[in-house]
User: Which sequence fits this backbone?
């Protein structure tokens, strides 16, 4: 049997980074770990969606935050919630599962909408269009205050999810100072990652998956084989956007409130960093990438404290993003295939 | 609507200057530079550092107070330093990438990383607060049919002069011809005796100086913020695309139009109470242009899909 060294290295690195959390934090390390695993699950799911766009199909999507946003806003607006400055709670709403399905479909349709102009454009133009569309979405959501709560956001929607929380989560967490609500969101995120990965694994080996990767390699050849390359690209856009929508919903439940400031371009860049770190085009890459990324992020506070005495929130955030920027640059220059990606599968040249 | 015309002209020239710089760089190097906004912010931040009053409450690195130099000299220094910064980026980052034939998309992602990195360096070490240049307040006056302060009117004039100069340089000097030659074909330019590495270096310096200048204009009219470049970057992209990406005159006109449109759209009836959405108008225009006339107003038709 062929030993996969890359996979072993990645596994060792992931275990080591989790070990770091315990080594660096003398107290509350379980709480920190649970928190970062929750975020890693949600962002990892989002990165899996982005990987369908960029890794599989070669679509340069820089508007990923808007897919997450559409999924989150549609779902949350359909379940009981309180929106806006007045924040009056409306008890009318759909059951969560139906709202979630509608939300994911809405995100996929937004992917289709964005894909329509985008598929006609070359890589770098596509990057500009998607980031612009994401900003239009964010500005509109912020301005439509009567529906979306605008800058005041949406609150009081968590019960729809937390009512389904199984008892064992509360029982398990009795020894830790950790919110069972967040643990439930995190558990769901990892269950969803598992389900989505199973689905994608099947798709990846199917004729459809092969056709998709063929689009990335040589679109003209795909056309010559009688496949509809445009429709394949659109399907990829919808699939990835749907997965992103799912992760957006989880992100909203994790925060317990829905704010437009969550869906800024920086969210997209976080997801990009995770995808590149894990390995572009690799199925499992974003999962490991996400864990390692969030360990790095959650331990940066130490750097911030080293650099500044009494670092404030802004400085900690600044140090985080300085690191994210450096990470993206260094990976792209020195190891564009990340931990698990294959170099020959990387689409990096505009044709 | 007319009330907004003065603001529109000002935003128009700022975006115009910045868009020319972005478009020139794209034309010569094929780099979509997402870090362009950070060079814009650098111009403003450096000017603030040089010109700010010594005993003002602005502090850089939490301990250095501004130098209190003459404003015009500060601005000139800042523009020169922006040029040096751009030149260093080319020499230390983008030239090695080109040598290793790193693909365009990888370079694009690198500029995004660079943008995030540099922007948050500003947040950490320069100024996280909204700051203003040490300039006295002025009353608005009427010029022709629009209102603006005398200082902003001066900015308008200087910007127009700068753009005419840039246009003349690109059209008539040997350097401009060499830039266009490299833009059309690097190999053919090299064969004809143009040192393309040198031209690309000069383009980086030139583009960064213009970006820094645009940042100073923006800061005079509005204020200095650590993320001011990123806030305006998408509008610059919109202007560049509208005029035709890679074309200099197109970018000038496109940038100007976007600026005016953004400000005028504030006065439209359906925009009432939605001032924040004005940028969405510009971005929507950009997407429509890319859909129906992807080469922009002045661009030549080329394959973009």
Assistant:
């Amino acid at each position: 049997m062929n030993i996969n060294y890359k996979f072993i290295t990645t596994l060792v690195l992931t275990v080591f980074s989790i070990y770091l959390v315990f080594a660096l934090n003398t107290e509350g390390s379980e709480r920190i770990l649970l928190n970062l695993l929750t975020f890693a699950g949600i962002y990892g799911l989002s990165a899996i969606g982005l990987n369908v766009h960029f890794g599989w199909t070669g679509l340069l999507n820089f508007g990923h935050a808007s897919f997450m946003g559409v999924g989150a806003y549609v779902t949350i607006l359909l379940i009981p919630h309180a929106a806006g400055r007045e924040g009056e709670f409306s008890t009318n709403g759909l059951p969560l599962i139906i709202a979630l399905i509608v939300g994911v479909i809405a995100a996929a349709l937004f992917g289709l909408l964005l894909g329509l102009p985008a598929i006609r454009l070359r890589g770098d133009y596509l990057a500009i269009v998607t980031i612009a569309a994401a900003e239009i979405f964010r500005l509109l959501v912020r301005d439509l205050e009567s529906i979306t709560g605008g800058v005041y956001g949406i609150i009081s929607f968590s019960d729809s999810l937390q009512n389904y929380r199984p008892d064992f989560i509360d029982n398990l967490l009795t020894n830790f100072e950790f919110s069972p609500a967040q643990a439930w969101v995190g558990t769901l995120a990892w269950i969803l990652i598992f389900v989505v990965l199973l689905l994608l694994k099947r798709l990846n080996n199917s004729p459809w998956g092969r056709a998709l990767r063929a689009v990335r390699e040589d679109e003209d050849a795909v056309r010559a084989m009688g496949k509809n390359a445009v429709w394949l690209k659109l399907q990829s856009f919808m699939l990835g956007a749907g997965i992103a929508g799912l992760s957006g919903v989880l992100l909203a439940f994790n925060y317990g409130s829905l704010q437009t400031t969550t869906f800024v371009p920086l969210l997209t860049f976080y997801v990009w960093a995770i995808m590149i770190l894990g390995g572009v085009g690799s199925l499992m890459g974003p999962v490991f990438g996400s864990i390692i990324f969030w360990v790095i992020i959650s331990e940066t506070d130490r750097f911030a404290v080293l650099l500044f005495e009494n670092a404030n929130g802004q400085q900690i955030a600044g140090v985080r993003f300085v690191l994210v920027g450096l990470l993206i640059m260094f990976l792209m220059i020195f190891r564009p295939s990340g931990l698990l990606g294959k170099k020959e599968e990387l689409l990096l040249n505009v044709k | 609507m007319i009330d907004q015309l003065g603001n529109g002209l000002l935003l128009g020239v700022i975006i115009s200057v910045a868009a020319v710089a972005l478009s020139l760089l794209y034309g010569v190097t094929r780099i979509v530079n997402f870090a362009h906004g950070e060079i814009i912010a650098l111009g403003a931040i450096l000017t603030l550092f040089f010109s700010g009053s010594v005993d003002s409450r602005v502090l850089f690195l939490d301990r250095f107070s501004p130098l209190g130099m003459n404003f015009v000299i500060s601005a000139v220094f800042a523009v020169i330093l922006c040029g040096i910064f751009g030149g260093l980026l080319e020499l230390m980052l983008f030239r090695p990438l080109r040598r290793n034939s790193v693909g365009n998309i990888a370079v694009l992602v690198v500029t995004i990383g660079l943008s995030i990195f540099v922007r948050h360096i500003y947040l950490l070490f320069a100024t996280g607060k909204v700051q203003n240049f040490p300039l006295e307040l002025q009353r608005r006056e009427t010029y022709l049919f629009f209102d603006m302060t005398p200082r902003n009117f001066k900015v308008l004039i200087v910007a127009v002069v700068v753009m005419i100069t840039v246009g003349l340089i690109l059209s008539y000097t040997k350097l401009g011809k060499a830039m266009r030659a490299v833009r059309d074909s690097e190999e053919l330019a090299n064969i004809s005796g143009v040192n393309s590495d040198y031209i690309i270096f000069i383009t980086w310096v030139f583009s960064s100086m213009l970006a820094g200048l645009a940042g100073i204009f923006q800061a005079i009219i509005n204020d200095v913020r650590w993320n001011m470049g990123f806030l305006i970057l998408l509008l610059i992209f919109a202007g560049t695309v509208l005029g035709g990406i890679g074309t200099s005159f197109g970018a000038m006109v496109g940038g100007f139009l976007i600026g005016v449109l953004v400000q005028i759209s504030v006065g439209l009836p359906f925009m009432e109470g939605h001032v924040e959405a004005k940028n969405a108008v510009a971005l929507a225009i950009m997407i429509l242009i890319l859909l129906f006339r992807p080469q922009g107003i002045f661009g030549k038709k080329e394959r973009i899909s």
